[in-house]
Amino acid sequence: MGLPFHSRSISSMAVLWATFFFLALATSAVVNADDARTVYEVLQEHDFPIGLLPGGVTSYELDESTGKFTVHLNSSCSYKIDSYELKYKSTIEGVIAKDKLSKLSGIQVKVLILWLSIAEVIRDVDELQFSVGITSADFPVRNFDECPACGCGFDCKDVNLRKIISSSSSY
User: What is the mean pLDDT of residues 42-52?
Assistant: First the structure.
């Protein structure tokens, strides 16, 4: 009678250890801001410029296996670029892959009088194509070499402040 109980204990232990192993494996695919890479480095690893995100990122999560990400800013953010006004919510989500950001939420652009959500960004050589679903606009990649600052975007009066924000943003 002792043997069946012992076998059951060993099988239960094996199942328990297997569960812990797979849980550890699944959670190891999620990259947190505590890791060595910054969110800006993650953008660059996927062939995007750092200027797609403003300064002020406080943390991010990335599931390496699916590309799903969440970026947290210290608050919502808005600024103007040429004739466009952009708004970032304090939480931005989407999926990142080489040359493609998709299923984006938390970023809007004002076109004329309408606020439209940017759903996708695709890199095509030296151009970035921003899609709002029904239409898109292309911009040179070089326009996004620096991180914009909330409030003033790329047109901050203090250019050094914008460069500090770009280089000191650790997430």
Answer: 96
